[in-house]
């Protein structure tokens, strides 16, 4: 009897998990399906789910109109560069806050987080003017630094949380064995926090990949990443939903593939320290 | 002999460097994503072949583009050599000295061929600051088959009262046909533009001659109440969130008896590839309220302008002359047919016999000619612009005001409440701006 209840509960949980998963995935699935429709089929009412003539025409048009690889390369450099630079700065910062906290550590952490509450548009003009002065408008370097600064509070917070789960005694033991600060961070702390660091890198890479305010406002023809690629297919005067869907599918495909292959690492990192 | 050699060498060097300069010159153009602009991008190679000037495109969604080019021009960022801007920005930016005047265009360009309404709307104190790539007004698009079934005939220039009668006759819940589809979506360029021209056609205005807001006047109450009642009775469900694209989609699927919107939509709804009602579409001038001389049609142009900070002024001018020329129109007509040429910019286009055969050509021209941005309302006003007021504060004010109207359409507040709030918002913002 108990066994039957358990299997029934298991089945209900599985069904609920699948339902929630499908609901979350449905907008992406719909975008992918729409990318294979004609513009007329894309706006059909009632909507057509699968019974349409599949076409690659939208992908052909998008490929013909835009240099996809250039946008993709810019996205990789900007998202990758800003994430790696952020982690390099955040690891020592999180170490000091987790293992050598001062009276003000909590205040600093909260202050760092509070910078995320500033609406980006509030500092658009100052940052735009700084970029003009430094000759960095429409450059990947400017976006690497700006996106790193935007995501730094999150990176520090995540790493701080993971580091706090590591017993300080282990680091003390390494110090007693003669390890300096560099060895302690590089050879003792980092290997133990690898799942946490990996999930931090992945999450921030996704955040930087999807960032649309600064990447649209500070780029033109040279440094524009995939967010600008999508924006070039959106139109309030004309129905180009199928082409927009094709462009969106091409823009999210790399990050979907990355997420798919690294999902184990991501889940492991996000639940790191959740169960002791 | 020696002098000759020196002269020869100098000439050769000059020619080589000129050629090298031409090949090395590349201009960057910011533009919107719509059919005509995308088509222009496809012909860029022709321009490069003729002039040796390379072109890089930055195509953005309209609102993103507006924010992007505004940031760049106000900071003199110099990211773009040509910007695609509209009739709202051009006179304001021209007056601020942010744009290069287009007062030395070549004779072959024939600047006098630009439609007078477009030329006036893109000028400041008589100086042209942007060349129209395409222009539009608004008009009625209606289903000829449904009108016939209803036993009605659409006049060339109907009144709102007739429009209501026709909407009632064509509305059919069983067949999922709405009598009329109109914009109710918040945003100064969406529902804000539509309710402004509707108000003009009921005798209302945004400001009196002393810049005092006029939402507390009976004409506004009459216009907004008429619009809401018409749409509540015969419009689609959720019309408060419908803009151009939503209505285009409904019309193309045969779910609207009438649609009053941009003339540029005519080519979409008559295209059999996308529209299920392509063979049954008629056109008429935008309506007015009985006895009011002004009609509910706007005037807009997407135009090409050169920001004052550019280092490539000559190359930019060459591109503008090419893209907005008569030759470009012929190039598109040759390759893609006359229905696909950019409309509403040049007088000569409407004198072309082939173009006169396009079903919506004459009504588009009539609608453009019926719009006068310098005299948009029944009572005199201190501003230029029909569906907008050409002052920098307008976009911000009208966005807020249109949100109040959309809330009234959605039933979240009454028309009276929306008008009271619109008046309060406008008074506050205008006082803060020093009017």
From TrEMBL, chain A:
- PANTHER family, per the entry: INNER MEMBRANE ABC TRANSPORTER PERMEASE PROTEIN YCJP, MALTOSE TRANSPORT SYSTEM PERMEASE-RELATED
Q: Where in the cell is it found?
A: Cell membrane
Provide the transmembrane region boundaries.
12-33, 71-96, 108-129, 141-163, 184-207, 240-261
Q: What keyword terms does UniProt attach to this protein? A: Cell membrane, Membrane, Transmembrane, Transmembrane helix, Transport
Q: Name one Pfam family in it.
A: BPD_transp_1
Q: Which residues form the ABC transmembrane type-1 domain?
A: 72-262
The keyword Transport appears for this protein:
yes
In the bilayer, the protein is annotated as:
Multi-pass membrane protein
Q: Mind giving the lineage of the organism this protein is from?
A: Bacteria, Pseudomonadati, Pseudomonadota, Alphaproteobacteria, Rhodobacterales
Indicate yes or no for the key word Membrane: yes
Would you tell me the Gene Ontology cellular component terms? plasma membrane
GO process terms (BP)? transmembrane transport
Source species of the chain:
Pseudoponticoccus marisrubri
Q: What family does this chain come from, according to its entry?
A: Belongs to the binding-protein-dependent transport system permease family.
Name of protein: Sugar ABC transporter permease
From TrEMBL, chain B:
What domain of life does the UniProt record list for this protein's source?
Bacteria
Chief location: periplasm
SUPFAM superfamilies of this UniProt entry?
Answer: Periplasmic binding protein-like II
Keyword Protein biosynthesis included in the entry's annotation: no
Keywords of this entry:
Signal
Q: Where in the cell is it found?
A: Periplasm
Q: Where is the signal peptide?
A: 1-22
Check the record and name the InterPro entries matching this protein.
Answer: Bact_solute-bd_prot1, SBP
CC annotations in GO: periplasmic space
Q: Pfam families recorded for this chain?
A: SBP_bac_1 (PF01547)
Write down the Gene3D superfamilies for this protein, in alphabetical order.
Periplasmic binding protein-like II
Per its UniProt record, what PANTHER family does this chain match? ARABINOSE-BINDING PROTEIN-RELATED, DIACETYLCHITOBIOSE BINDING PROTEIN DASA
Tell me which family the UniProt entry assigns to this protein.
Belongs to the bacterial solute-binding protein 1 family.
Q: What is this protein called?
A: Sugar ABC transporter substrate-binding protein
């Amino acid at each position: 009897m108990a066994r039957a209840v358990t299997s029934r509960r298991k089945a209900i949980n599985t069904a609920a998990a699948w339902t929630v998963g499908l609901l979350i995935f449905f907008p992406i699935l719909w975008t992918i399906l729409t990318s294979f429709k004609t513009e007329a089929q894309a706006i059909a009412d009632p909507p057509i789910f699968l019974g349409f003539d599949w076409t690659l025409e939208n992908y052909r048009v998008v490929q013909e109109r835009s240099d996809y690889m250039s946008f993709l390369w810019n996205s990789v450099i900007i998202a990758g560069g800003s994430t790696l630079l952020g982690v390099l700065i955040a690891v020592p910062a999180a170490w000091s806050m987790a293992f050598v906290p001062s009276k003000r550590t909590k205040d600093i952490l909260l202050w760092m987080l509070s910078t995320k509450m500033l609406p980006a548009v509030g500092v658009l003009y100052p940052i735009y003017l700084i970029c003009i002065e430094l000759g960095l408008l429409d450059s990947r370097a400017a976006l690497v630094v700006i996106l790193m600064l935007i995501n730094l509070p999150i990176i520090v917070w995540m790493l701080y949380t993971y580091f706090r789960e590591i017993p300080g005694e282990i680091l003390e033991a390494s110090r007693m064995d003669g390890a300096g600060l560099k060895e302690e961070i590089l050879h003792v702390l980092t290997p133990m926090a690898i799942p946490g660091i990996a999930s931090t890198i992945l999450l921030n890479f996704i955040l930087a990949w999807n960032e649309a305010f600064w990447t649209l406002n500070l780029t033109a023809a040279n440094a524009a990443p995939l967010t600008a690629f999508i924006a070039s297919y959106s139109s309030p005067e004309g129905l180009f939903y199928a082409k927009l869907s094709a462009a969106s599918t091409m823009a999210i495909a790399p990050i979907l593939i990355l997420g798919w292959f690294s999902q184990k690492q991501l889940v492991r990192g996000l639940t790191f320290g959740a169960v002791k | 002999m020696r002098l000759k050699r020196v002269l020869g060498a100098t000439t050769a060097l000059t020619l080589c460097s000129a050629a090298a300069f031409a090949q090395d010159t590349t201009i960057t153009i910011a533009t919107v994503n719509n059919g005509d602009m995308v088509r222009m991008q496809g012909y860029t190679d022709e321009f490069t072949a003729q002039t040796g000037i390379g072109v890089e495109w930055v195509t953005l969604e309209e609102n993103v583009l507006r924010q992007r080019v505004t940031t760049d021009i106000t900071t003199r960022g110099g990211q773009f050599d040509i910007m695609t801007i509209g009739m709202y920005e051009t006179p304001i930016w021209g007056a601020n000295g942010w744009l290069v005047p287009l007062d030395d265009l070549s004779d072959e360009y024939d600047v006098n061929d630009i439609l007078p309404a477009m030329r006036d709307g893109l000028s400041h104190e008589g100086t042209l600051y942007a060349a129209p790539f395409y222009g539009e007004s608004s008009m009625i698009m209606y289903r000829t088959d449904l009108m016939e079934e209803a036993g009605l005939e659409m006049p060339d220039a109907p009144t709102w009262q007739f429009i209501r009668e026709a909407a009632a006759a064509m509305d059919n819940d069983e067949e999922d046909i709405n009598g009329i589809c109109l914009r109710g979506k918040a945003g100064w360029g969406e529902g804000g533009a539509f309710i402004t021209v509707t108000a003009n056609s009921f005798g209302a205005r945004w400001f009196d001659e002393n810049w005092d807001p006029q939402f507390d006047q009976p004409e506004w109450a009459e216009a907004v109440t008429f619009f809401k009642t018409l749409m509540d009775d015969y419009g689609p469900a959720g019309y408060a969130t419908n803009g151009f694209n939503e209505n285009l989609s409904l019309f193309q699927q045969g779910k609207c008896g009438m649609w009053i919107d941009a003339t540029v939509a005519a080519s979409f709804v008559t295209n059999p590839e996308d529209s299920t009602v392509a063979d049954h579409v008629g056109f008429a001038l935008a309506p007015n309220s009985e006895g009011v001389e002004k009609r509910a049609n706007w005037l807009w142009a997407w135009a090409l302008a050169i920001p004052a900070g550019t280092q490539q002024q000559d190359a930019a001018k060459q591109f503008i002359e090419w893209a907005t020329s008569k030759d470009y129109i012929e190039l598109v007509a040759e390759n893609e047919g006359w229905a696909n040429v950019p409309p509403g910019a040049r007088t000569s286009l409407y004198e072309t016999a082939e173009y006169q055969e396009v079903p919506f050509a004459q009504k588009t021209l009539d609608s453009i000619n019926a719009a006068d941005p310098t005299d948009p309302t029944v009572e005199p006003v201190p501003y230029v612009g029909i569906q907008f007021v050409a002052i920098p504060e307008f976009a911000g004010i009208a966005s807020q005001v249109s949100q109040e109207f959309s809330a009234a359409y959605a039933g979240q507040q009454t028309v009276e409440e929306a008008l009271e709030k619109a008046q309060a918002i406008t008074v506050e913002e205008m006082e803060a701006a020093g009017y």
